[in-house]
């Protein structure tokens, strides 16, 4: 007989299971709140990590590109738009003579084709391992061997064939290494040395789409490291002012990333403002829903008061129910958020056209735990406010109102 008794400790579970429709409605509200909050916060953190990754990869103080190609060059780094451009005349020797220039290295950018001759449209980046101080140190941190002629190093999103090669302009290039994700355009790029760059150019001509025309040695970008004591902006101005440098444009990566940072900050600010407004609206909705639910249960609560339950015990009862709802709804929302944000990170990055580096699982778990705690606290506070207001009435009046 005693096993059938329902104590105040068992009432929360009994009440929730007794009203499945009401419980499901509350679960949906909390789950939606948690889903939006978790997913939005994860996106904001990933954008921030992507910007940091871009800044780390832009190890040069100045980029010297063909005049008119500044936006295209910025797009390669920031938006991952494949592009091909090059100088009609290599300016490297002239750049070296400019005051404040410590060292230089060159890169060549070639976009593969959306055609059967290529596995997919990729950004091919040719660099000089002997002089490079931007890409080479990063690659060496993951691949310690020498990049041989005819080999490529693939970015994180580049998928080699079963034979371990990449098809570019009807030629199979063996993949020497596969790099870790960076959240930048480098994830969709392949890296080759100078000799392989020349091979790519020759193969592109054979398929009728020469990547480079009327140039013996294609250079797309001259990267400059500035000497101590000089400002990158000043050295860039010196380069632009030289008489034989009228066909070049000098860009400081700091300026490029600062513009992107401002754009990214604006995006994340709007995102966090939306999250805050959404959560505030959701909290108001929860308070309204719990108030309606509590009013609906007025007679039940008044009866418990007559049977000896104290007001504080009844408030705790409502808070226990809401804590269960907050935990369950939060788990559903966080799970759905993770199910969307992690597997589709590449698609999200492509659509946002911004550096996007998905946060690690450790950070994601921490954010999910914080979201669960927030969901439970919000639900408990909403229930406590609604319950306190309801239970402040006299029991007799509550019972009469329920008749």
TrEMBL record:
Coiled-coil residue spans: none
Residues covered by the ABC3 transporter permease C-terminal domain: 273-385
UniProt cross-references to InterPro entries, sorted A to Z: ABC-4/HrtB_transporter, ABC3_permease_C
Keyword Cell membrane carried by entry: yes
Leader peptide range in chain numbering: none
Keywords, in A-Z order: Cell membrane, Membrane, Transmembrane, Transmembrane helix
Topology in membrane: Multi-pass membrane protein
Highest taxon listed in the record's lineage: Bacteria
Transmembrane segments: 24-47, 270-293, 314-345, 365-386
Subcellular location, record wording: Cell membrane
Keyword presence, Ubl conjugation: no
GO CC terms, sorted: plasma membrane
Protein name: ABC transporter permease
Lineage per the UniProt record: Bacteria, Bacillati, Actinomycetota, Actinomycetes, Actinomycetales
């Amino acid at each position: 007989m005693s096993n059938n008794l329902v104590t105040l400790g068992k009432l929360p579970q009994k009440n929730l299971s007794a009203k499945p429709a009401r419980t499901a409605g509350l679960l949906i509200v909390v789950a939606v709140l948690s889903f939006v909050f978790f997913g939005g916060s994860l996106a904001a953190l990933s954008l921030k990590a992507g910007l940091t990754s871009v800044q780390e990869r832009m190890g040069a103080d100045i980029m010297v590109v063909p005049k008119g190609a500044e936006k295209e060059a910025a797009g390669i780094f920031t938006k991952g738009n494949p592009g091909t451009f090059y100088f009609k005349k290599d300016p490297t020797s002239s750049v070296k003579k400019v005051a404040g220039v410590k060292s230089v290295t060159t890169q060549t950018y070639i976009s593969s084709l959306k055609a059967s001759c290529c596995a997919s449209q990729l950004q091919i980046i040719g660099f000089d391992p002997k002089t490079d101080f931007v890409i080479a140190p990063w690659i060496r941190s993951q691949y310690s061997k020498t990049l041989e002629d005819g080999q490529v190093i693939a970015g994180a999103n580049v998928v080699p064939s079963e034979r371990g090669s990449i098809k570019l302009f009807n030629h199979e290039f063996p993949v020497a290494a596969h790099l870790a994700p960076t959240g930048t355009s480098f994830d969709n790029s392949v890296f080759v040395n100078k000799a392989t760059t020349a091979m790519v150019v020759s193969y592109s001509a054979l398929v009728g789409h020469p990547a480079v025309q009327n140039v013996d040695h294609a250079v797309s970008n001259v990267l400059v490291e500035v000497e101590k004591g000089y400002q990158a902006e000043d050295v860039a101005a010196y380069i632009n002012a030289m008489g034989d440098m009228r066909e070049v444009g000098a860009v400081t990566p700091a300026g490029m990333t600062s513009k992107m940072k401002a754009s990214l900050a604006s995006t994340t600010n709007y995102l966090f403002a939306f999250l805050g407004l959404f959560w505030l609206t959701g909290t108001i909705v929860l308070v309204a829903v719990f108030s309606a639910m509590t009013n609906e249960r007025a007679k039940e609560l008044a009866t418990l008061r007559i049977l000896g339950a104290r007001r504080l015990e009844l408030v705790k009862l409502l808070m226990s129910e809401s804590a269960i709802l907050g935990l369950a709804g939060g788990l559903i929302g966080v799970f759905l958020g993770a199910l969307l944000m992690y597997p589709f990170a590449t698609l999200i990055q492509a659509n946002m056209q911004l550096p996007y580096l998905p946060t690690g699982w450790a950070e994601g778990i921490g954010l999910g735990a914080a979201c669960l705690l927030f969901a439970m606290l919000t639900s408990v506070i909403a229930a406590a406010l609604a319950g306190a207001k309801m239970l402040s009435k006299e029991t007799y009046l509550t019972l009469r109102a329920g008749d």
